[in-house]
Design brief:
Length: about 375
């Protein structure tokens, strides 16, 4: 099933300008709070009316501003799972599931029975939503949507109110329950693990615009834009100046990096994920940064180290031209005297490697694996 979304909506000082086309069965939308994720879903559902654009599912036009087409929400055949599930509090489980169904009483009862069995709600039919757990409420809400067989299901931060243990359980359940659903499912989240686990295709939204899009695994591997890299979990960034086709100056880290492959012309900065560093004990080689510890944090399943950059350029426009190597109170400083705290380099060491660090002590250097360097716009 194909879906085309082209929407523009202006609200006070915020504008949503989104355009994408997809034939994927599972689409993830990743972005920070307030970036326009939920507004995108509400526009598809017909809850929000865009100022301009068009929305087409398969060959069915749901919205076309130029053609003055705006199908009412209840006629779009789009299921919307809200963050709070929006169950009717005074209606039982079976009545909630039947709420959107059409047909005879017998047909409705048969369909409700099918959904109760499919979503493992047997024995809960007469309970009210307030008597259910969070996971059970979600299953009821999803059963109500699936009962009328929508073309598209929209999931708006469906796991945000759950604790970590329940969240993992409910995510697995939802994936299982949607396994045989042939329509398109769009999941909105600010959690990178959720969208990675769920989606085939990913859209990264930043301030009302698509910052990056593509197959989910590929986008995590090569996010292209800094915002996409940040939202997919990258912690370390530096502006760069190309010295030649294979060499760059990382201004915010104060080091030179040499690449075997050509540096892309579009690259304005680089990113490096905190788990990808390789510790080095002994002499310095190429593509290493001195291990100058700022501070650290011991967490239950990993140890996080925060490393000072070696040098930092004194201004945004003079990358690498006037590197300042002053030190004050153990921290590098720019000419203006501001601390480098915001430019610390994160190295996150998981439990299996922490044993090596405990035996050998802290490393002398951290090595940048060229294959793990992210070139970003």
């Amino acid at each position: 099933m194909s879906i085309t979304v082209e929407i523009y909506k202006k609200l006070d000082n915020f504008s949503l300008d989104i355009s994408f086309q997809s034939q994927s069965r599972r689409i993830g939308i990743l972005g920070a709070s307030g970036c326009g994720k939920s507004m995108t879903l509400k526009s598809i559902a017909g809850i929000v009316t865009p100022d301009e654009g068009r929305i087409v599912i398969e060959d069915r036009i749901l919205f076309d501003q130029s053609g003055r087409i705006d199908v009412k929400p209840q006629k779009r055949n789009v299921g919307y799972l809200f963050q709070n599930y929006a169950l009717f509090p005074t209606m039982t489980v079976e009545k909630n599931i039947a709420a959107g169904l059409k047909g005879s009483r017998k047909e409705k009862a048969e369909r409700v029975s099918q959904m109760v069995n499919k979503f493992r709600l047997n024995g809960l039919e007469k309970r009210l939503p307030g008597q259910l757990s969070g996971g059970q409420q979600q299953r009821v809400a999803l059963a109500r949507i699936m009962a009328y067989e929508p073309d598209v299901i929209l999931l708006d931060e469906p796991f945000s109110a759950l604790d970590m243990f329940l969240k993992d359980q409910v995510q697995r359940e939802m994936n299982d329950l949607l396994e045989d659903y042939k329509g398109t499912v769009i999941l909105v989240s600010h959690n990178r693990d959720e969208v990675y686990r769920f989606s085939e295709e990913l859209l990264v939204i930043d301030q009302g615009r698509i910052a990056a899009s593509g197959p989910t695994e590929q986008l995590f591997r090569d996010p292209v834009s800094r915002e996409a890299a940040r939202l997919t979990g990258c912690k370390n960034f530096s502006r760069i100046r190309k010295m030649d086709e294979h060499t760059l100056w990382a201004a915010d880290w104060g080091i030179r990096l040499h690449m075997n492959k050509k540096i892309p012309d579009y690259a304005a900065c680089i990113g490096y994920r905190a788990h990808d560093f390789i510790p080095v004990w002994g002499e310095r080689g190429n593509n290493m940064i001195r291990f100058d510890l700022e501070n650290s944090a011991a967490l239950p399943f990993e140890h996080n180290y925060y490393i000072r950059p070696e040098r930092k350029s004194s201004g945004c426009n003079g990358l690498g031209k006037k590197e300042d190597d002053e030190r004050g109170n153990g921290r590098h400083r720019t000419e203006q005297g501001s601390s480098y705290a915001e430019n610390v380099i994160c190295w996150f060491v998981q439990r299996d490697r922490e044993t090596e660090v405990a035996e050998k002590g802290l490393p002398d250097y951290l090595f940048f694996n060229e294959d793990k360097i992210l070139f970003l716009k």
